[in-house]
From TrEMBL:
PANTHER family: FE2OG DIOXYGENASE DOMAIN-CONTAINING PROTEIN (PTHR10209:SF123), OXIDOREDUCTASE, 2OG-FE II OXYGENASE FAMILY PROTEIN (PTHR10209). InterPro entries: DIOX_N (IPR026992), IPNS-like_FE2OG_OXY (IPR044861), IPNS-like_sf (IPR027443), Oxoglu/Fe-dep_dioxygenase_dom (IPR005123). Residues 220-323 form the Fe2OG dioxygenase domain. This is 1-aminocyclopropane-1-carboxylate oxidase homolog 1-like. It holds the Pfam family DIOX_N. The keyword NAD does not apply. Keywords: Iron, Metal-binding, Oxidoreductase. The keyword Heme does not apply. It comes from Ziziphus jujuba. One of its GO terms (molecular function) is metal ion binding. The lineage of its organism: Eukaryota, Viridiplantae, Streptophyta, Embryophyta, Tracheophyta. Belongs to the iron/ascorbate-dependent oxidoreductase family.
Length: 375
């Protein structure tokens, strides 16, 4: 069943918008947002229309020149102590002032990055019947999952986006649990991202004045959750969003984006474009890192604009344990080495499992999941 127009029901002589029915129709179609585009719709269904105040435009051109996401060159950090010190200083500035930065010379080849983007594009653009085999809303499923909007039934407005997701660490999936069209490249790419993540957590530990392996040793880099996003061209991009205003429920996110653009970061109360740099990876700090650093490293809100210039692809690698082992009771709270009388703990301890459960229940509603964990 394809959603092509808003549904209404009559109640006491008044027309009432039946949002739940339309959401269920989209869900039951198992073809996602791309299915709507393929059906040839020229007006977006009402479920996708966002409140106008959430659609505010980015800062003007002058501010775009004034603000740009830091780009950090990781070349030589393992061979030259002076290069490493330079990068640690740059990462520290980016973390404390932006919560976002891009990295180049990160050890993942341009060829592999391009193959990964192409693999996700091929998955989403293949025969819908092949995609339907992976359609699921079961977040505990270890098989790769295709769905549209993880918070479809919770969010105030639906986002113009489909997603392929899978858990890649600490327990790697069986190859047969991944789509044939991109499974091999996902596993290859994730190995390289795990290595980069370990390096980034070393740098973050040193920025905090801790031993280099501190954050790796407490498990920040042991879990990896993979999201292959697809944003089809939208006939009315001014009415909706690709991804609404949110922060990530992760320790760290490594994002690979194509050249279409649309990602924006909220910086000094203005939306700033994250201009794609071919071969670069976007790094952003997540809520769990803000929690354990006691607000030293902010998890910054960001969003993706809907566009009609083409299909945007991005690959988000979330460093967090998406499906913790049943006996996983490790608690995360503000790191004790960072706590002083002048800097008392802001958050209570939580397990990653409880944090993720709250994040999923809340959905992308613009309110930080961290609010719930404040002391």
């Amino acid at each position: 069943m394809v959603v092509t127009s808003s549904k209404h029901i009559e109640h006491d002589g008044e027309s009432i918008y039946d949002r739940q029915s339309e959401l269920k129709a989209l869900d039951d179609s198992k073809t996602g947002v791309k299915g709507l585009v393929d059906a040839g719709l020229v007006k977006i269904p009402r479920i996708f229309i966002h409140d106008q105040q959430n659609l505010s435009k980015p800062s003007n051109g002058d501010d775009q020149q004034k603000f740009s996401i830091p780009v950090i060159d990781l070349q030589g950090i393992d061979e030259d102590p002076f290069s490493r010190k330079r990068v640690i200083d740059q990462v520290g500035y980016a973390c404390e002032n932006w919560g976002f930065f891009q990295v180049v010379n990160h050890g993942i080849s341009l060829e592999l990055l391009d193959k990964m983007v192409d693999g996700i594009r091929r998955f989403h653009e293949q025969d819908p019947e092949l995609k339907k085999e992976f359609y699921s809303r079961d977040s505990t499923n270890r098989r790769a999952r295709f769905s549209t909007n993880f918070d479809l039934y919770q969010a105030p407005a639906t986002n113009w986006r489909d997603t392929l997701s899978c858990v890649l660490a600490p327990r790697a999936p069986n190859p047969e649990d991944l789509p044939e069209v991109c499974g091999e490249i996902i596993l290859d790419y994730s190995d390289k991202v795990m290595a980069l993540g370990s390096t980034l957590f070393q740098l973050l530990s040193q920025v905090l004045g801790l031993t280099p392996n501190y954050l790796n040793d407490i498990g920040c880099s042991e879990g990896l959750f993979f999201l292959g996003h697809y944003y089809p061209p939208c006939p009315e991009p001014e009415l909706t969003l690709g991804t609404s205003n949110h922060s990530d429920g992760t320790f760290l996110t490594v994002l690979l984006q194509d050249q279409i653009g649309g990602l924006q970061v909220l910086h000094e109360n203005q939306w700033v474009n994250v201009t794609p740099v071919h071969g670069a990876l976007v790094i952003n700090l997540g809520d769990l890192l803000q929690l354990i650093t006691n607000d030293r490293f902010p998890s910054v809100n960001h969003r993706v604009l809907a566009q009609n210039v083409g299909s945007r692809v991005s690959v988000a690698s979330f460093f967090r344990t998406q499906i913790p082992p049943e006996n996983s009771s490790r608690l995360y709270g503000p790191i004790k080495e960072l706590i002083t009388k002048e800097n008392p703990p802001i958050y209570r301890e939580t397990t990653v499992k409880d944090f993720v459960q709250h994040y999923y229940t809340k959905g992308l509603n613009g309110v930080s999941a961290l609010e719930y964990f404040k002391l």
